[in-house]
User: Fold Amino acid transporter transmembrane domain-containing protein from Ceratopteris richardii.
Amino acid sequence: MATKDQVTLNMPLHSITTKIVLWMTVLTPMFKFALQLSPITTSLEVSLYKHCKASRNVLYGLSTLMRSAVLACIAIFAMIFPYFEYIVAFVGSSMTMAICLLFPCSFYLKIFWPKLRPRTKAVILILIILGTIIGICGTIVSVQGLITKRKSS
Assistant:
């Protein structure tokens, strides 16, 4: 039996677990995208609530419309600019490691340095070093992808 190139194609066809995995595969990027847009839309909503004195239902409708407009603008932007995916990958690889790993570890060390045991300090410093290396590698790969795509078109 040959293995197919996608993991989901190798799963049994009529199994309930296959359906769950397929739906999770489809829905995860959509939820992730919505969560990544949340800070932008939340700040716009705060501004909207400060400047607009309307009823709760009107504000909810405006908020929904605004969130949809932000999503539509980004989708249109992605279709207009052919290298948008590589720019997003570049920003993601360069910033995700910083926000998720480097900043929390650095702040933790800064706050609790005198109270930490040497072994704990070493582990956190190793995490910071590995996170930096991974972030740099991801940034290099995304920039190389952008250069390769640009040369081929």
User: Anything to note?
Assistant: The chain has a mean pLDDT of 83. The helical segments are 16-51, 56-80, 84-112, 118-152. Residues 44 and 50 are 10 Å apart (CA to CA).
